[in-house]
Amino acid sequence: MESDNKNVILVAYDFTSIGDIAIENAVKMAKILQYKVCILHIINKTSRKNLKKANEPLESISQKLEKTAQSIKKEHGVDVDYMSRKGSIFRAIAEVSKEINANFLVFGTHGKKGIQFLLGSFAIKLIKSCPVPVFVAQQPAKESKFADVVFPLDMEAGSKQKVKWAIALHKQFQSKFHIYVDSYPDEFIQNRLRADLRQVRNIMDKNNIPYSENYSPKKGNFSEKTVEFAKEIKADMIMISTDPDKITWSLFGSPDERTIYNTEKIPVMCINAQDLRVIIGGL
């Protein structure tokens, strides 16, 4: 089934507990925004193997998706579509997000552990392949209203540009942004960052967006300090900018990975530096 609503939250779903977390977050968002949810299941080698193990036919996928959609409609009153697609998870999700003109992809994860350390980061691969931003959730949204957002500001590409998405996020969720500014020992670089901060402040003031200014200590890892700050203020999410051409997997954890897979399980909105639209997914 294809969604015909221009405001759609896409959820990649694999019938696991992590997929349930993604759906829960997507439904929570949909209720606040009055958007439609589209549940997507990718049929690949893993799903076929699971069907064979459970002695279930391929047709059972549509039946399960329909049952899940009906349950959401009945319990939450949210409009829900569902669909399945054969192929690579990364390619298929990107294709579907374009086809249905999705606004978000909500994606659930247990965090980077076990086999992911050896084979690479699933989240990083998905974010790189997706043409729109990705909301990564590690736990149910519960009472979150997605209103308190940490806005890290450093000298990385796209850091200040994500303020354009902040405007949209504020309109949708009435969000308040907590700007968290990095510290650099080099005075020239620090002055450039101050100039970026002035630009961000001016844009937020112009659009009547509430915000606070906060500064990180000079010592320590900025990604880790950002997560600590988000925990301290009980933020609903951290918003980061990711560049598909530059974001990489690291055995020891890249800055983006340390934020995305943070052990405090704070949700992360990954804004594509090349495309400021949105997507949410659970796998």
Overview of this structure, please?
There is one protein chain. With 283 residues, the protein is of the alpha/beta class. It has two domains: 8-137, Rossmann fold, CATH 3.40.50.620; 148-235, Rossmann fold (3-Layer(aba) Sandwich). It has helices at residues 17-33, 45-53, 60-76, 89-99, 115-119, 122-129, 163-173, 187-206, 222-232, 255-260; strands spanning 8-12, 36-43, 80-86, 104-108, 134-137, 148-153, 176-181, 211-215, 237-242, 268-272, 279-280. The longest helix has 20 residues, at 187-206. It starts with 7 loop residues before the first strand and ends with a strand.
Structural features:
283 residues; alpha/beta; Rossmann fold; 2 domains; 6-stranded parallel beta sheet; 5-stranded parallel beta sheet; 10 helices; 11 strands; 21% strand; elongated; disordered N terminus; disordered C terminus
Question: What fold name goes in the CATH topology slot of the largest domain?
Answer: Rossmann fold
- Any idea what the CATH architecture of the largest domain is? 3-Layer(aba) Sandwich
Count of helix runs: 10
CATH superfamily of the largest domain: HUPs
How much helix, percentage-wise, in residues? 40-55%
Mean pLDDT across all residues, rounded? 85
Largest sheet: 6 strands, parallel
Counting helices, strands and paired strands, the structural category is alpha/beta
Beta-strand segment tally: 11
Radius of gyration: 19 Å
Question: How many structural domains in the coordinates?
Answer: 2
The span between the termini is 20 Å
| Shape annotation | elongated
Query: How much beta, percentage-wise?
Result: 15-25%
Enumerate the spans where pLDDT stays under 50 for 5 or more consecutive residues: 1-5, 114-120, 276-283
Strand order of the largest sheet: 3-2-1-4-5-11
Give the helices and strands as they follow along the chain.
EHEHHEHEHHEEHEHEHEHEE
Q: What's the CATH class of the largest domain, please?
A: Alpha Beta
